[in-house]
């Protein structure tokens, strides 16, 4: 099932607890902070993800609706970092491979570490199906539209 993470930038206190939790969980933070709010992988459609499409070794593959980096196949050419529209893949110097957000699907967690650590409760995980249902709610659609505009203004 394809899942996405949504953030409410108006409610974010900019504490960076989500980024710290990600780093603690994975050894390298797979998210980063912009001038104010945290930025996460867009979880692009596996067939259209620029990072996966440009990878010369095919190290970035879809697994259960999420793109995963095969560390053994990664040659750290950094093309995925260039191709990503928001520059989200990160290099794990210790593992000598690129890392990207997987919403912690490779762990035993029910919720991603960042979502669990967010004291402001501004990070939410939705399935694509749940988001489709929410789009029909006019009030929610307006909030989502405002949030997207704010994110674009902050980048």
UniProtKB/TrEMBL annotation:
<keyword id="KW-0004">4Fe-4S</keyword>
<keyword id="KW-0677">Repeat</keyword>
<protein>
    <submittedName>
        <fullName>Ferredoxin</fullName>
    </submittedName>
</protein>
<dbReference type="InterPro" id="IPR017900">
    <property type="entry name" value="4Fe4S_Fe_S_CS"/>
</dbReference>
<dbReference type="GO" id="GO:0016491">
    <property type="term" value="F:oxidoreductase activity"/>
</dbReference>
<dbReference type="GO" id="GO:0046872">
    <property type="term" value="F:metal ion binding"/>
</dbReference>
<dbReference type="Pfam" id="PF13247">
    <property type="entry name" value="Fer4_11"/>
</dbReference>
<dbReference type="GO" id="GO:0051539">
    <property type="term" value="F:4 iron, 4 sulfur cluster binding"/>
</dbReference>
<feature type="domain" description="4Fe-4S ferredoxin-type">
    <location>
        <begin position="3"/>
        <end position="32"/>
    </location>
</feature>
<keyword id="KW-0813">Transport</keyword>
<dbReference type="InterPro" id="IPR017896">
    <property type="entry name" value="4Fe4S_Fe-S-bd"/>
</dbReference>
<keyword id="KW-0408">Iron</keyword>
<keyword id="KW-0249">Electron transport</keyword>
<keyword id="KW-0411">Iron-sulfur</keyword>
<feature type="domain" description="4Fe-4S ferredoxin-type">
    <location>
        <begin position="65"/>
        <end position="94"/>
    </location>
</feature>
<keyword id="KW-0479">Metal-binding</keyword>
<dbReference type="InterPro" id="IPR050954">
    <property type="entry name" value="ET_IronSulfur_Cluster-Binding"/>
</dbReference>
């Amino acid at each position: 099932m394809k899942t996405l993470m949504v953030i409410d930038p108006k409610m974010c206190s900019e504490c960076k607890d989500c980024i710290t939790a990600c780093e603690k969980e994975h050894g390298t933070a797979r998210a980063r902070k912009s001038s104010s709010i945290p930025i996460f992988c867009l979880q692009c459609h596996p067939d259209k993800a620029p990072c996966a499409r440009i990878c010369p070794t095919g190290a970035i593959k879809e697994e259960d609706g999420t793109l995963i980096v095969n560390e053994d196949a990664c040659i750290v050419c950094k093309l995925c970092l260039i191709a990503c529209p928001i520059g989200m893949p990160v290099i794990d110097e210790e593992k000598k491979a690129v890392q990207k957000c997987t919403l912690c699907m490779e762990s035993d967690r029910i919720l991603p570490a960042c979502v669990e650590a967010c004291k402001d409760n501004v990070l939410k995980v939705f399935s694509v199906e749940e988001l489709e249902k929410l789009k029909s709610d006019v009030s929610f659609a307006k909030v989502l539209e405002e949030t997207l505009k704010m994110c674009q203004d902050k980048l």
